[in-house]
Amino acid sequence: MSGAGPVVGLDIGGTKIHGCVLAGGRVAGTARRATARGIEGVLSSAADLVEVLCRQVGIAVTDLAGVGAGLPGVVDTAAGLVSHAVNMGIAEADVPLAPLLSARLGGTPVVIENDLSVATIGAAHLLEAGDDVALLSLGTGLAAGLMLHGELRRGFRGGAGEIGHITYVTDGAACHCGQRGCLELYASGAALAARWPSPNGRPASVAVFDAAAQGDPDAVRVRDEFVAAVAAAVRIVALTCDVEHVLLGGGVTEVGAPLLDAVTAVIRGWEAESQFLAHMAIADRLRLVPAELATAPVGAALAFARVVPV
Amino acid sequence: MSGAGPVVGLDIGGTKIHGCVLAGGRVAGTARRATARGIEGVLSSAADLVEVLCRQVGIAVTDLAGVGAGLPGVVDTAAGLVSHAVNMGIAEADVPLAPLLSARLGGTPVVIENDLSVATIGAAHLLEAGDDVALLSLGTGLAAGLMLHGELRRGFRGGAGEIGHITYVTDGAACHCGQRGCLELYASGAALAARWPSPNGRPASVAVFDAAAQGDPDAVRVRDEFVAAVAAAVRIVALTCDVEHVLLGGGVTEVGAPLLDAVTAVIRGWEAESQFLAHMAIADRLRLVPAELATAPVGAALAFARVVPV
């Protein structure tokens, strides 16, 4: 990451873009702005933020080695295409977003990557968790980003890590995917928000954990059911891919240490009952991705460096 | 697999060894014998069978490029060590079985590998299923052998593919692993045998499917519950690793096409309800490993060639 020049990383979401400049392996600057919708909106928002970031650290856009960008939706990194990024108002398939953004930036090379993949790359890097990692993203949905021996596992149909749609409760509630009882109905931020509406704008996860810590029996029940489902997600990742590190990320991590402690306690309880699970030592591999870390923008910059060595 | 000489593949199990000679990419001969117990027993049984196979195809042991052997238990392929292969009466850890067998064979190189891995390599090869494959082994237990983009995925603690110990029924029956309701209690040959004892020596799986086909309502229920659990195992593999091919193997495949048809029908039913699963097109990736194929011995020979190119 030293050598050829700084890299900008962009985490492009449906409502905002979060960016950073990575120079010599260090974050030299960060900035955010709102995302305008549609192809033209995304391009101009992203190009604006790149310019803001460059001004912030006192360089020209032409000084950049390149730009890496993480996007929701189906991303073809090799061809620079994004499809069905409906959160950003891009319903089209095979939109050549990487070459379009590159042209907007005077020919600066651009690499695009799926947002869960960049979050995984960034979390593994910032937590110094090596190259064999699953990031459990506990947000609106539930999915795992997989980096196996350094290689991102996307899967044959782009569905690797879609553990949120494994059945957790037989004949459970209806999921938007068309199945019933999917794990993400129990182990996601949205699941928690549905069970514990938080009228004052605090994240539902923080509100539930606080109320539970104060002894509210309903909150204790909601928290414990959520934590058990998250632990089940961890077990699924551990007993399929057996990665060296399992990282808990996503919006729910605003709860902080109490979330990690609670999930760890459930798994330690299982390990006390099961020699097999004790041997697997899953709890020892579990870590929390602090919500304040710029994992996705940093991961986006690193995603660029994976494709175009700098 | 042409060039430097034929390779013997051995599938060493607790009661018998099944071997083959692979020459020029073709199976030139096969043979079986009983496995004697303990380190000395396994070494002499294996060395005997290598000699029998060589005589059968008219070559000397010294003409072999090498021997690949699949073993139950924890195998360190790089160092040639096996640990805790209790099925074969080897309770010890770190037994240098590869160098010991090599010495017994006059210095012929020997590579050892986990039995599930060799079955996966062999099944992928014989079914021409490419290099991105999960083999669901439905035998005494349930586990998945994983080959991801050509690389065997063993996992950080050797637990990759241990899907049999993911919970399938909350508070279900006790599993020998110490947990409750594990998937292998519902989706394995042993599970079927426990629910449908087959007094006349026929495999329980064949007996259940036959009785169900003749309309026995108990058999229909046992069969359908088993098939649903196998389908759940397929979904777990598809929504974690998203491999290109999912192969059904193990003793249960003696049922043949009716097993594949039944599992496929369950998954097609899910796909009819779920656009997400329809997009994943899991049923299209499902294939049966015919029980009569010598997948494990062929895979063992190929495992040798993966380590020592011939």
From TrEMBL, chains A, B:
InterPro entries linked to this entry: ATPase_NBD, ROK
One family name in Pfam for this protein: ROK
Domain of life (superkingdom): Bacteria
PANTHER family with a match to the protein in the record: BIFUNCTIONAL UDP-N-ACETYLGLUCOSAMINE 2-EPIMERASE_N-ACETYLMANNOSAMINE KINASE, ROK (REPRESSOR, ORF, KINASE) FAMILY
Family that this chain belongs to: Belongs to the ROK (NagC/XylR) family.
Stated name of the protein: ROK family protein
Annotated organism of origin: Georgenia ruanii
